[in-house]
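Appendix B: complex inputs.
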Amino acid sequence: MKFLINSLLEIQNKHGYLPKDEMERISVEFNVPISRIYSIATFYNAFSLKPVGKHVIHVCKGTACVMGGSGVFEDTLKQLGILDDEDFTYQPIRCFGACSLAPVVVIDGKVYGKMTVSRLKKMVPKLFEDKDKTSKGDEDAR
Amino acid sequence: MRIRIRHQKGMKMLDKLKEKGIDELYGDRIAVGTSTCGVAAGALEVLEVLALDDTKNVVEVGCLGFCSAEPLVYVQEDGKAALVYRNVKKTEKIEEAEILGWFYPWEFSPLKLEHPELEGYRECPRLIEHPFYRKQVKIVLRNCGIIEPLSINQYVAMGGYCALQKVLEKKPEDVVEEVKKSGLRGRGGAGFPTGLKWEIARKNEGEKYVICNADEGDPGAYMDRSVLEGDPFSVIEGMTIGAYAIGAELGFVYVRNEYPLAVKRIEKVIEIAKKYGFLGKNIMNTDFSFDIHVVRGAGAFVCGEETALIASIEGYIGEPRIRPPYPAEKGLWGKPTVINNVETWANISPIILNGWKFFASLGTEKSKGTKVFSLVGKVKNSGLIEVPMGISLREVVEEIGMAENVKAVQTGGPTGGCVPKNLMDVAVDYEELTKLGSIMGSGGMVVLDNATCMVDVAKYFLEFSKIESCGKCVPCRLGLAEMVDIIERITKGEGSLNDLEELERLADVVANTSLCGFGKTAPNPLLTTLRYFKEEYEEHIKGVCLAGICRALVRYRIVEDKCTGCGLCKLNCPADAIEEVDEVYKIDDKKCIKCGSCFNVCKFEAVERW
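Resulting structure:
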């Protein structure tokens, strides 16, 4: 049994967004108008029509995290220049279900609990320096 | 007669699995809790270090619930009970970590289980005497953190699939009756009697479906995630029993995409259950067949509403539909559909095994059994707890959570309400919480302390609801947006007393004219804060936020005499607004965003709020 949302999520996970030709392909496969695919793509938070950056940063905006002070992380990321950088995608997320570790930040899929501004300020630039180095290394090796 | 003989083969298989499971469960092992919460606390690194010693049997289990003590590791060796270590670090030897207590692996389960005798520890406390566990009664969480989530042997050793076996010998209508008598009500929030829902679906003819609602979108609630990660078999066993009772052959688990581990686990256990004949064709060698598919949610809060969820499975945007007809009459693809949430399904097999009387003996007159809550926020002990219905909020927050300086408890997720401290003696019960203007919801419980601004809390939830409104009903779509505008004005000190009346009027319209449960309850956070904390709104209108949260109403400065020059404030300033001048620090008012980070981190009270 195939489900429209599952198929779209697979495309989203593969490309980081929903490319137009893939949406057209799904429209044919499921025999539904492209307008409905578009309505789904814009209704659900998981889908994006634009490619995401190399690094994805999620800040949890769940109740426990916000009460624990996750609101200032957006300001911190702004200060670090991440919000204006094409290589980065910043997405606030509603809740990761790790509320006892609030406030939570997820960077490239890894969950960091009990986050503080100073830790974020130290961590983010360093993490990306290392990552960019290794990804460059991979390219060189090829 | 024929079914009986074939069925006995199934019994033999259960015995075999049980035997293996008992060996695995009570043999020597070191268990690390690696649910999402454990992983975030560093459990995988601890696991990696422990696994280096290949003479030890190191296994991964779900969450024991006590999230603030994670990573949790327990050691079970030489015929002794399990000894739990808390906050284990990868750099230290396990024996050097702090001991939380010891427990028998079977003692949390309400079921009668076969087990060998294990020796306890005299020198350290029992886990069940710890304040966090003392008042808990586990039914839903009976196996969480105890069994390896993907081990069918261990699940059966903890009484798994015995309920299904028992059910297959009964008439489906008797199963419905049993659930009905137990008094179980939907744990997703609305509290509709589960047995009644089943009965309606059973009476309808033709193809039918069962759905597990695992689209746990409430921020601050994660019990469904924990059950799916820690004891996924219990959910699919419950669904299989439900399918047999109503006469369905197909089921769906609709699970949030934000819970990747839960998705993986549920997909895996469906595969395993099929291999052992607990799912698929001719379940346990009977004529009953049932299959389950997993559908992932795509991050829309409103899809937790049952008709929106159904629309989403069908491949539409998640807009709720008009009820009646209820899904039990006309649901997925227009067919009778029973839709229950994860916690409800996990309750089914203990009810069948121990009988309805066992379940009905727990709780209050109208709310039976237990409820799982995620106790988070300003508490010392945070985590997942399962308590009998009827326990007071105060016991939960102050005795289990050991919270101090409580101002209010927010229950029921973003569309729930805030119960103030002086009303915390209220019993946890669907009707009692509704009377106070809150709801049971799916079980999020966020404790707010005196440093919280209640207007800001209301603003947060209204903003959430504004964004998550699907937009179908005008009052919900526009009303909530208007309410956010007004409350924003108030938090900037630009509100008037008329605004409060306008907010109440809008809340009334949204609640009474929206189609689904979301719109009907979305004004709750506003209404309860207005009801119990009106003076805070009035203070804001005068331009004062006593808690110092609302940025437009506060300013910060550093008192030179008190500043020791440690620089912690500068490190924690998100806006780079703090400069060092002559060995003390100063805030640049132009850059300051008034977030209060410096105020919160300063150990010398050198930062002043005014």
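Residues 73 and 117 of chain A are 7 Å apart (CA to CA).
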